[in-house]
Each structure stands twice: as C-alpha cells, then as structure tokens.
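Submission checklist for the structure archive. All mandatory fields must be present; incomplete records are returned to the submitter.

[x] Identifier: DUF3093 domain-containing protein
[x] Organism: Arthrobacter glacialis
[x] Residue count: 228
[x] Sequence attached
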Amino acid sequence: MHGRSFWVRRAEQRLGPELGQLRHVAASRRIHWAWLVPCIAIGFVYGVIGQFISSPRSTDRTPDRFEDIPLFMVVSLLTGLVLWSLTLAFSFRTLLVFDAGIVTSFAQKATTRIFYWNQVNPESIKAVTSQDGSGPTHLLVAKKLTKLSVRGKYAVVFQAVPAKVEPATNSSTEPPQAGFWTFETTDEPSPLVLALQQAMVEARIPGAERIAVQALPPVVLAGRTILD
C-alpha cells in the first residue's frame, strides 16, 4: 500500500485490533521552499554572531575572527538548513481509513483523533477544489470548520456528528467535536472518496452507497460556500 511509512505502520499495529484493517493512506504535503533562503540567511547571521562569541581573545592587532572562511560558510549553511528542516514538521499530514473509521494525528497516542463511522455523516462527504488551484478550505463557511492538513489543490470535506450509539471500544481518545472537517491534498481525491464509501458501506452505514456519486467529480468553488 502506498504511503505506509514508519509512523503509519506503527499506528496500524497499535490501532488495528480496535479499528480493523487499514484500507487507505491519504497524504497531504506542502514543502515550504520559500522559507529556505530566509533560513539560510538566519544561519549566516548566527554564524557571524558565533565568530564574535567564540573569539574572546581577538584584538585590533591580532584579530582571529573569520580566519577560516570555508569553515564559516559550511557551518552557517548547515545551520540554515537545520532551521529549514524544522519546517518539515509542518509540511506533512496523513489521514488513515480503517474498517471502523478515520484516523488522524496518530504520531502519538495522546494526540490520536478517531472518527468512527457512526460519527460521520455520509451525506456530508464532498470533494472540492478552487478555480485558482489554491487550498479550497478558505472558501468554505461553517459554524465549526477544522482543517486536518496542510494546503492542497483538493479538499475532502465531511461532517462529524454525535454518535447515536457509542462504539464498543476501550479507546482513551476523545470523541471528535461536532462540525465540519477538511483534508486538503495535492493528489486526486477519488481514491480517498472511494475508500470512504467502501468502508462505510461494509459497515452498513445508511446512505453510504451514494458517497461517490455526490462527492465526485470535485466541485469547483467560485466563491464562498456555506456548508451548514
């Protein structure tokens, strides 16, 4: 299965006994290349500061700052790259579709968010995009709207509702808040939508058989769209 990283396999092993088989892995990624140059510039600033801090014996007659220019360049560049690499923590998000529901924020047990199928309104599931190809979530309006991803060309939207019957589980995760949730991705949303439909149909959720018909192809948003 595409996208089964170390973190996904770890979540699969931890949640599999409770949620069943992992059916689909949806990725949301947006690398912030625009931050690379500023981070490198900051790295050189730190490098200059380091030259003065690490050269306390330097005097006007015997300066020992910037004596090793190649080393200064390499250290400053590496410092900038390390700073930029920290932005990668905000560049990737993943959504998992299991037999029993949707899982996000699964890197740690305390942050794991689970949407069981009886907490998802199948009639609310839609795929949308925007005319200019930017993230479509900013065009959606709802009383409660939460984004589960970084910015992407497409967004899959669904509504979380209070479960009529609590799932039989010993999970310590908090139930998701009622409202609309979006997952943006640069990938074509059809595989995710079809995985949602198949899992909900097999879970015998009423109305799940029409998910693909109502959600695909993605609706192109021309302006602000009210979800409520």
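[x] Structure attached
Curator remark: The radius of gyration is 24 Å. The CA atoms of residues 84 and 114 lie 31 Å apart.
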